[in-house]
Amino acid sequence: MKPTKPSRGRPRQNEITEGQMRALDELSAAIDRNGIAPTMTELGEKLGITAASTHQLVLQLERKGYVRRQPRKARSLRVVRRPSQSIESMVSVPLVGVVKAGPAMLAEENRMGEIMVASDLVARGQCFALTISGDSMKDADMRDGDVVIVRRQLIAESGEIVVAMIDDEATVKRLETNDGSIRLLPENRKYKPIVVQPDSDFRVLGKVIGVSRKYER
């Protein structure tokens, strides 16, 4: 009896091609840089392909669970996981409490634990993690109990999602600056923007660069 040839079959669903990996990298970099996802045209220009081809790549990444978007919401695409990585490519980031903690929340003694994240996510600068409290950012896909990864920085650009301190209370919101005025915008229509008054004790603690739902407290 002749030996049967091994069946090639279809590739495993979670495998990622070189083209998909490039799209994932460019998408992640654009969100990190601008605070929002690029359009398919913008992403296609970075990849050197058409918007239609880019759309197909993103659909494949979405089916495989690497990216997620909010239905009927523009520029809501975000990276939710990366291809499997070895432990050597992971680093620990301190978990320092919930977002509404006080001004000393970043102190060493207030660490609640650690969370492991991909080293390429936190390659540029010192980072920390905070647990989201409340639903004011739910339309940015940041829900109550999620853990956000934050890069420490004192300056952020308008449109970026930041952790900011206002009069001894921390909050996660989208920063808006216009002609010297500062507002912190929620991503939930139930909540009103926070207008930062000139006499408020206001400072940016860092920029949100990632979200995790897998950390168990």
3D structure, described in words:
- Helix content is 18%, strand content 30%.
- The protein is built from three helices and eleven strands, in the order αααβββββββββββ.
- The N and C termini lie far apart (58 Å).
- By secondary structure, it is an alpha+beta fold.
- α1 crosses α3 and α2 packs across α3.
Q: How are the SSEs ordered, and which strands pair?
A:
Layout: H1 18-34, H2 40-47, H3 51-63, E1 67-68, E2 78-79, E3 90-98, E4 113-118, E5 127-131, E6 147-152, E7 161-166, E8 169-178, E9 181-185, E10 194-196, E11 202-212
Helix pairs in contact: 1-3, 2-3
What keyword list fits this structure?
217 residues; alpha+beta; two-stranded antiparallel sheet; disordered N terminus
Q: Please estimate the helix content.
A: 10-25%
Rg result: 20 Å
Q: List the total number of helices.
A: 3
- For the secondary structure, the number of strands is 11
As laid out across the biggest beta sheet, the strand order is: 4-3-5-6-11-7-8-9-10
Order of helices and strands: HHHEEEEEEEEEEE
Overall residue-averaged pLDDT value: 78
Biggest sheet overview: 9 strands, mixed
What is the straight-line distance between the termini? 58 Å
Strand content: 25-35%
- Low-confidence residue ranges: 1-13, 100-105
What's this entry about, in short?
The chain has 217 residues and is α+β, with helices and mostly antiparallel strands. Helices cover 18% and strands 30% of the residues.
